[in-house]
Amino acid sequence: MAASIRPRLISRLAVVTGGGSGIGRAVCQRLASEGASLVVADRSVESANQTLENLSRDHKGQEHMVAEVDVAFRSSVENLLNSIQRRYFQPPSVCVNAAGITQDEFLLKMEEEDFDKVVQVNLKGTFLITQAFSRAMVAAGAPKGSIVTVGSIVGKVGNVGQANYSASKAGVQGLTRTAAKELSRFGIRCNCVLPGFITTPMTDKVPEKVISRITSLVPLGRMGDPAEVADVCAFLASDDSLYITGSCIEVTGGLFMG
Ligand code: NAD
């Protein structure tokens, strides 16, 4: 974060799923640097702890925690919410859904289980987290709730080898817009970020040949950095976006525009 930017999230409590790696980790770092207390939630406690170790604590009252969660299971999501309420006596007012997986294969060869697995984490997981945390925000009467989901540009345009992933991410957009319509009367905003190709452990799996072909198509001429997605998430979490809900913001370096 540039030193001149004012911290916008002082005294806010934020939960970030998938906070142990890549985009989720960058979001945790950015929100903490803007003054929020962070719940770093991930299936991997070890990687969540690594994120926690480097979070800023420069602002008064900041208190971070790690929580294990598998977003694909309601009981696990409920345990996460309960552990947060026990610790902070309130639900988060910011919730970022960054947990996600890929299981790539050509449509003609894709196993049904691999379709189900990806949809269960990326789409159903986003539903379970969004539902549980928005219910808690409504019950607490907390104003200024902001829920951010992470879709993908491939949810709009498709991608070879990603029938499961692109379907799950298209679903995330529909879910976000519906949640935005239903939750606005409670003061809760819901928006989606659509990253393009961002350098993280997820894209480390993509063959070099494919990466250089994609990069050549990106108008800005490079892959994105997780911090550049986190910038947009922080904007959506903050009061700088108070009149924005139901939007899907592309963070793609211009890839597949228009
Ligand atoms: P990543 O693999 O680096 O991080 C994903 C994190 O999610 C990991 O820490 C993992 O442990 C966690 N996770 C996976 N399944 C989980 C589950 N069931 N419950 C809880 N945590 C779980 O990936 P990333 O690139 O940082 O991706 C973050 C999000 O951004 C994902 O939703 C991904 O689909 C999306 N995205 C990434 C890109 C990209 O180019 N990297 C592009 C578009 C969208």
Automatic annotation (TrEMBL):
Reactions the enzyme catalyzes: a (3R)-3-hydroxyacyl-CoA + NAD(+) = a 3-oxoacyl-CoA + NADH + H(+); 17beta-estradiol + NAD(+) = estrone + NADH + H(+); testosterone + NAD(+) = androst-4-ene-3,17-dione + NADH + H(+); 17beta-hydroxy-5alpha-androstan-3-one + NAD(+) = 5alpha-androstan-3,17-dione + NADH + H(+)
Top-rank taxon: Eukaryota
Any one GO molecular function term: estradiol 17-beta-dehydrogenase [NAD(P)+] activity
Record keyword Nuclease present: no
EC number(s) per entry: 1.1.1.239, 1.1.1.62, 1.1.1.n12
Similarity annotation: Belongs to the short-chain dehydrogenases/reductases (SDR) family.
Alphabetical list of InterPro entries matching this protein: KR_dom, NAD(P)-bd_dom_sf, Sc_DH/Rdtase_CS, SDR_fam
Coiled-coil residues: 38-65
Assembly and binders: Heterotetramer with CBR4; contains two molecules of HSD17B8 and CBR4.
GO BP: estrogen metabolic process; fatty acid biosynthetic process
Listed name of the protein: (3R)-3-hydroxyacyl-CoA dehydrogenase
GO CC term, one of those recorded: mitochondrial matrix
Pathway(s) where this gene product acts: Lipid metabolism; mitochondrial fatty acid beta-oxidation; Lipid metabolism; fatty acid biosynthesis; Steroid biosynthesis; estrogen biosynthesis
Domain Ketoreductase residues, every copy: 12-198
Compartmental location: Mitochondrion matrix
Flavoprotein is among the record's keywords: no
Key words of the record: Coiled coil, Fatty acid biosynthesis, Fatty acid metabolism, Lipid biosynthesis, Lipid metabolism, Mitochondrion, NAD, Oxidoreductase, Phosphoprotein
